[in-house]
Amino acid sequence: MESISSWRHFASSFLFFLQNFVDYSLMLVAMTYNYPLFFSLLAGHAIGYFFVGPLMTVKEVENTGNCCS
């Protein structure tokens, strides 16, 4: 378990804040009902998923053993 005063915990907390700030800011942009901005958000999400999505896949490793023999 990490200490609350560790640098890793501080960095994780800062990244959590930054992610939420960006998420809520984009939500407010979408709520302006400005269609060009809204479709720009959708296009940005689609392009981001296209390029970053393959990097986010998790490959499962099958553990085979002699557990039953």
TrEMBL record:
<keyword id="KW-1133">Transmembrane helix</keyword>
<keyword id="KW-0186">Copper</keyword>
<dbReference type="InterPro" id="IPR007274">
    <property type="entry name" value="Cop_transporter"/>
</dbReference>
<protein>
    <recommendedName>
        <fullName>Copper transport protein</fullName>
    </recommendedName>
</protein>
<dbReference type="GO" id="GO:0016020">
    <property type="term" value="C:membrane"/>
</dbReference>
<keyword id="KW-0812">Transmembrane</keyword>
<keyword id="KW-0406">Ion transport</keyword>
<keyword id="KW-0813">Transport</keyword>
<keyword id="KW-0187">Copper transport</keyword>
<keyword id="KW-0472">Membrane</keyword>
<comment type="similarity">
    <text>Belongs to the copper transporter (Ctr) (TC 1.A.56) family. SLC31A subfamily.</text>
</comment>
<feature type="transmembrane region" description="Helical">
    <location>
        <begin position="12"/>
        <end position="31"/>
    </location>
</feature>
<feature type="transmembrane region" description="Helical">
    <location>
        <begin position="37"/>
        <end position="56"/>
    </location>
</feature>
<dbReference type="GO" id="GO:0005375">
    <property type="term" value="F:copper ion transmembrane transporter activity"/>
</dbReference>
<dbReference type="Pfam" id="PF04145">
    <property type="entry name" value="Ctr"/>
</dbReference>
